[in-house]
Amino acid sequence: MKKEVSVLLGVGLLIVVLVGLGMFLSGSEADKTTATQTVLLDGAVYQTNYQGKDKIAKVNVIEFGDYQCPACAVAEPKVEEMLAKYKDNKEFNFVFRSFPLPQHQNAMIASEAVLAAGEQGKFWEMHNKLYANQSEWENSTAPLDIYAKYAADLGLNVEVFKEAVRTEKFKDQILKDKSIAESIGINATPTFYVNDKPFVGVPKDDMFKAVEEGLK
Predict the structure, then answer these.
(1) CB-based contacts of 65: which residues, under 8 Å, 6+ apart?
(2) Max CA pair span of the chain
(3) Structure pTM?
């Protein structure tokens, strides 16, 4: 009898320990995910949909992109498809972060142009224009002249826009985005994160599936 009681107590204690360990690991993983999302969203300005005070929605998709990157331009229609699908879902959030690669001569100034347009409320419009017309400006020796034309098309104050780009007004923001990318080991564009899960290259079904599963 004493032996049976000891066995039962031992089994009970083991269950308590395993449950406690499971809760600890689950909590640690949750903390890890939250911490990753916080890093990815730190200081992010250009978001869609979610406007909660902590900047973390149920599903956060973060893209690190280079406006001169051919693969990023190819990925853009897929991104737009995703944004259209979830445009009314308040639990979905999309953030773009600039990661201009050194081999792309106009990538940095392109990021400046998009942020300068954003200052006048047309971030996404300029973002889309640069990708749609990448072949027009990617090898230009005077890309600002082309961007100024886009700014005029978007109804921006062109002189204010050009001055912001010329003076590299948003350089610190771009370098911060780049620093965040490098701190988590990103070395290629486009790289996406769905919450804390990375996807490199043009979005495929697995990335869309991860978004769907996250929203359940």
Answers:
(1) 72, 75, 96, 97, 98, 99, 189, 190
(2) 91
(3) 0.82
